[in-house]
Write a structure and sequence with these properties.
mainly alpha, two-stranded antiparallel sheet, 19 helices, 1% strand
Length: 419
């Protein structure tokens, strides 16, 4: 098999493991924190923001991997093994502070590998069909997440007494550890190259591209704004459903959600919709002006948030879940691959490390901002405020619309900012 076929083969297996892990990072870890450990707002925000450390270390990881001469796949495999160790420890030992420490370790390892994975896609998938290959594996990951999320939610529901988990879910955390081991094996089999050694020795030297590339800087600023608008409400969806009593003044639902309801709304329905819409977004990414694509996605995100936090019934939550699934499907493609449209080929990992660095800032700050604001204003008002930020930043992004696909760097700028 050639590089593309081999990568696609193992990425399909890794997608199964990634889908299982996705349910943990988006729903079940925070659910355990609420239902079992009954953590306060600060601890829950730390869990929701845990992946930020890995994002912030993205430039350091890329720098270190290029220095030691590992291939991107070898480095990613090692990070996955380290993450599996973290989940293995917290699956065996039941301790509230060890739980938080383990989550921080595992998510740091998982998110730190993202720039390396993007470089693999750049090297092994053709530019004209990169979105297509990504969306195909995404369909497998989505299916895995939807099925596992529903099963796990059902099991947890049968182990819940008086709104609390009756036993610590060792089996669930052990499953996440096993998924990381599978991911590590798949990375070890994927063909990859060592990273190009960049000039300088500073571990954050990749950040120089923010200064040198004006268009890149403009996109990052806009992404920071609409990212904060979206992310500060993301963990509150779990909190809003799992801890309804905390919002008695403005909680409008006419039923008390169970773990099955939560898994259905936050895991199964969005992933089922993502499964259907992922091929569409993959194709649009390969053909459509990137700025228009991103603004359309932002519209779906903002609308889903407003509907979710202003609904009184299961019907409204289902509509919000569908819209979120549509947005998240295209958002994953855009978030994971957009730098391949703008970065010089040999610096895709560097550009992606900068992107995830700033993503780490908003991932860390946004949950704290959200949990703080929800104590001041109603969830309904907060959703409108969030939507306003998303729409305003989308308009700012469109100010560079003419650049669009023309900014793929065929030329002088590519030569200008390479080492």
């Amino acid at each position: 098999m050639d590089r593309t076929d081999t990568t696609y083969f193992y990425e399909r297996f890794r997608a199964v493991a990634s889908g299982i892990l996705e349910t943990g990072f988006t729903t079940f870890l925070l659910l355990i924190a609420v239902k079992w450990f009954t953590f306060g707002a600060t601890a829950k925000a730390l869990i929701a923001a845990a992946g930020a450390l890995g994002f912030l270390l993205g430039p350091v990881v890329v720098s270190r991997v290029s220095e030691v001469g590992w291939t991107t796949a070898q480095a990613a495999s090692k990070l996955m093994l380290a993450a599996s160790l973290g989940f293995l420890i917290i699956s065996i030992i039941e301790n509230r502070w060890l739980f938080i420490g383990g989550i921080i370790l595992t998510t740091t390892m998982a998110t730190a590998a993202i720039p390396l994975v993007t470089q693999i896609y750049q090297e092994n998938y053709p530019q004209t069909s990169r979105g297509k290959f990504f969306s195909r594996t995404a369909m497998i990951r989505i299916s895995s997440a939807a099925v596992f999320g529903l099963i796990a939610g059902w099991v947890l529901n049968n182990h819940t007494n008086d709104n609390q988990l009756s036993s610590y879910p060792h089996w669930l955390l052990g499953t996440f550890a096993s998924a990381f081991i599978i991911a590590a094996f798949c990375f070890s089999r994927i063909p990859a190259k060592p990273l190009t050694k960049a000039k300088g020795t500073h571990p954050f030297r990749s950040l120089r591209f923010v200064k040198e590339d004006k268009l890149f800087r403009h996109i990052l600023i806009c992404w920071m704004l609409f990212g904060v608008g979206n992310l500060m409400l993301f963990p509150l969806r779990v909190e809003y459903l799992a801890n309804a009593g905390a919002y008695s003044d403005d909680y409008t639902l006419n039923f008390d959600p169970t773990p099955v309801h939560i898994a259905l709304i936050l895991v199964f329905i969005p992933n089922a919709v993502k499964l259907v819409s992922s091929p569409l977004w993959g194709g649009l990414f390969d053909r459509m002006n990137f700025f228009i694509l991103r603004v359309v996605l932002n519209f779906f995100f903002a609308t889903s948030l407003v509907i979710f936090f202003n609904s009184e019934s299961m019907t409204g939550l289902i509509i919000a879940a569908v819209l979120f699934g549509i947005a998240n499907s295209g958002g994953e493609v855009a978030w994971s691959l957009w730098v391949t449209k703008f970065a010089p080929p040999k610096h895709v990992a560097d550009y992606m490390s900068v992107h995830v660095f700033f993503n780490g800032i908003r991932v860390f700050l946004s949950p704290f901002l959200g949990f703080w604001l929800i104590g001041i204003i109603s969830a309904s008002s907060l959703s409108l405020f969030s939507a306003g930020i998303i729409f305003a930043s989308s308009l700012a992004l469109l100010s560079d619309y003419p650049a669009g696909e023309k900014a793929k760097r065929g030329s002088a700028l590519t030569e200008e900012i390479t080492d």
